[in-house]
């Protein structure tokens, strides 16, 4: 695994304007995460965890500073360029799965592939491969409402990895699940990191969930206050 | 890009059952607007086609100068005698083919509403009947000159009370026997009662005067010869027009009036439907906000979110338009009714829907869908992608 950083934040500041006052979330934040890492980000509510995830996913823009991911500066990209960049670089895993309820599991997983030039046959093969990785190849034709929360989250993971992005951004991926199911999901993330080399950044409130990561970053009032290595 | 748009559209359309009642209300509103517009258009079209289908290019209609209709025209026996010598008139066995006709108003009662209306009673000769193309007596027989007998047009019989075959009707102090029913192929003449010219002149105290003269021309172009003759003969003060042009002019004002009423009403109702469509699609965008943001996070473009949302609005408008067209087609196409024509008498006609009118209905429906979806689609395209991370 190369030791070059996949994620580089340099002097990143982020502030929101509310009425006449400005609320600063980050001020001169720096962060470097190397490719193949699995990092949990913890911190109290309002510490800026989700904002950080949004910045790294190209969903939000910094007020100042540079964000470089996989060698590309994303802080100055246009909206359409960011869309294309997200499509091939990042896979998102949400707390509430965010599956399209009217589509089958396979159709949900196929969504990112619709942004590629793959043929229908190739798309179907890739979808089945992704579902197999998360152990749900037999539920391809089921709709989300026919699945448990854990199964839905595994479909969401399959959707996040189907286009083979380097980076997975997880927002409280086990926040809506019971302890046992949460363990299964976290083990799946570990497996993706270990066996497929995915770089994973996971925001979580749960210290037990954070232990599945290789390292834990504590964020408080817009600053990293502590880094723990778990393994 | 097309794959993206189709996918977002598909997701949007598949989520319609989640907003079933709101979507149905929008479809129904658009359907009502389209049905009302098509009803007016079909009415105008049917009226125009009935009048424009009446009359012939090679028959000239001669009226008193300045008279716009037969009802306010009068021609003397002397006028008729001069016209018999005019150029351009065809002859039969050496006799000029002209028909002096009286056109008087009698009372009738509309079957559907029971209201009193004016109906035209035409006094004419067999020559005049022959000039009206193929006329068939579908029931009974033709009137016999010298008796107070009437034949009734098929359309008039269907629309007004009291003109059944073998019945008697009273106009003024005179009873008239209905002895036959005639058909002229759906022209405006089927909205008339016909009797012998001399009988009508006598019973309505018109002496030997007529209101119009019809002349069979040697050819459609011969009308110019007849016009020259009429203009250059100092004994005549008449206007000459081809029978076809006369009915075309008669149709214009009434069919225009129907259109002038129809479109503004449809547009006013359309604004109501537009408000409904906007509300439905804004609700849809709000309900699907996280789905849209999720797709955007995955990499779908804002353009696909725009068109995906617009497609929902267009789908609702297409369904509404189809429903409205189906309703209009089922209830109005071929529906027979009557209205006041240019001659201040009732003209019976049928609503006629056709491809061109349906296109106008489709344009209205799609217009509502397009505008109703456009602004919500902009909102969808501008939804913050960060909404994908929001709570349920």
UniProtKB/TrEMBL annotation, chain A:
Full protein name: ABC transporter ATP-binding protein
PANTHER family membership: ABC TRANSPORTER ATP-BINDING PROTEIN, IMPORT ATP-BINDING PROTEIN
UniProt keyword annotations, A-Z: ATP-binding, Nucleotide-binding, Transport
Gene3D superfamilies reported in the protein's UniProt record: P-loop containing nucleotide triphosphate hydrolases
Signal peptide per UniProt: none
Taxonomy, superkingdom: Bacteria
Provenance organism: Iodidimonas muriae
Domain ABC transporter residues, every copy: 7-231
Single GO MF descriptor: ATP binding
UniProtKB/TrEMBL annotation, chain B:
The keyword Cell membrane is assigned to this record: yes
Transmembrane segments: 20-43, 257-282, 303-331, 351-375
Record-linked InterPro entries: ABC3_permease_C (IPR003838), MacB_PCD (IPR025857), Macrolide_Exporter_MacB (IPR050250)
Domain MacB-like periplasmic core: 23-228
Subcellular location: Cell membrane
Pfam families: FtsX, MacB_PCD
Keyword field: Cell membrane, Membrane, Transmembrane, Transmembrane helix
Top-rank lineage group of the source organism: Bacteria
This protein's name: Membrane protein
């Amino acid at each position: 695994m190369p030791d070059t950083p996949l994620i580089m934040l340099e002097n990143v500041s982020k502030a929101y304007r509310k009425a006449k006052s400005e609320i600063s979330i980050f001020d001169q934040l720096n962060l470097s995460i190397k490719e193949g890492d699995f990092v949990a980000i913890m911190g109290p509510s309002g510490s800026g965890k989700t904002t950080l995830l949004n910045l790294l996913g190209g969903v939000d823009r910094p007020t100042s500073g540079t964000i470089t991911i996989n060698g590309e500066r994303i802080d100055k990209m246009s909206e359409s360029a960011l869309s294309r960049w997200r499509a091939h670089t990042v896979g998102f895993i949400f707390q509430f799965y965010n599956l399209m309820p009217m589509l089958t599991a396979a159709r949900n997983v196929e969504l990112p592939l619709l942004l590629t030039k793959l043929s229908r046959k190739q798309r179907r093969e890739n979808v089945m491969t992704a579902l197999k990785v998360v152990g749900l190849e037999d539920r391809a034709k089921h709709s989300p409402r026919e699945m448990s929360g854990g199964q839905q989250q595994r479909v969401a993971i399959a959707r996040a990895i189907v286009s083979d992005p380097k980076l997975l951004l997880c927002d409280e991926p086990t926040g809506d699940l019971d302890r046992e199911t949460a363990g299964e999901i976290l083990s799946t993330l570990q497996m993706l990191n270990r066996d497929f080399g995915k770089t994973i950044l996971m925001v979580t409130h749960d210290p037990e969930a954070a232990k599945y990561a290789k390292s834990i970053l504590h964020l408080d009032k817009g600053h990293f206050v502590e880094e723990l290595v778990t393994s | 890009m097309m794959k993206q748009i189709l996918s977002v559209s598909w997701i949007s359309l598949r989520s319609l059952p989640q907003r079933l009642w709101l979507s149905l209300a929008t479809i129904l509103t658009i359907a009502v607007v389209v049905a009302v517009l098509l009803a007016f258009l079909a009415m105008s079209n049917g009226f125009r086609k009935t009048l424009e289908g009446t009359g012939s290019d090679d028959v000239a209609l001669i009226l008193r100068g300045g008279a716009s209709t037969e009802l306010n025209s009068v021609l003397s026996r002397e006028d008729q005698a001069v016209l018999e010598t005019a150029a351009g008139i065809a002859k039969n066995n050496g006799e000029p083919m002209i028909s002096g006709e009286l056109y008087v108003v009698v009372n009738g009662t509309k079957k559907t509403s029971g209201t009193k209306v004016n109906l035209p009673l035409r006094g004419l000769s067999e020559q005049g009947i022959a000039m009206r193309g193929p006329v068939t007596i579908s029931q009974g027989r033709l009137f016999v000159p010298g008796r107070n007998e009437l034949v009734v047009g098929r359309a008039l019989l269907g629309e007004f009370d009291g003109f059944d075959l073998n019945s008697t009707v009273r106009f003024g102090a005179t009873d008239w026997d209905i002895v036959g029913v005639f058909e002229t192929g759906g022209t405006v003449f089927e909205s008339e009662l016909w009797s012998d010219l001399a009988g009508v002149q006598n019973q309505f105290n018109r002496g030997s005067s007529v209101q119009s003269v019809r002349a069979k021309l040697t050819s459609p172009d011969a009308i110019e010869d007849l016009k020259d003759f009429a203009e250059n003969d100092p004994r005549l003060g008449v206007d000459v027009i081809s029978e076809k042009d006369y009915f075309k002019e008669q149709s214009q004002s009434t069919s225009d009036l129907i259109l002038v009423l129809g479109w503004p009403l449809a547009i006013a109702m359309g604004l109501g439907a537009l408000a409904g469509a906007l509300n439905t699609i804004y609700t849809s965008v709000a309900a699907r906000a996280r789905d849209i943001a999720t797709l955007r996070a995955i990499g779908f473009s804002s353009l696909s979110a725009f068109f995906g949302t617009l497609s929902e609005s267009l789908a609702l408008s297409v369904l509404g338009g189809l429903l409205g067209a189906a309703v209009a087609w089922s209830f109005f196409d071929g529906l027979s009714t009557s209205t006041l024509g240019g001659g201040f008498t009732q003209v019976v006609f049928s609503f006629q829907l056709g491809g061109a009118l349906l296109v106008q209905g489709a344009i209205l429906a799609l217009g509502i869908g397009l505008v109703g979806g456009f602004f919500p689609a902009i909102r969808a395209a501008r939804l913050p992608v960060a909404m994908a991370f929001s709570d349920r």
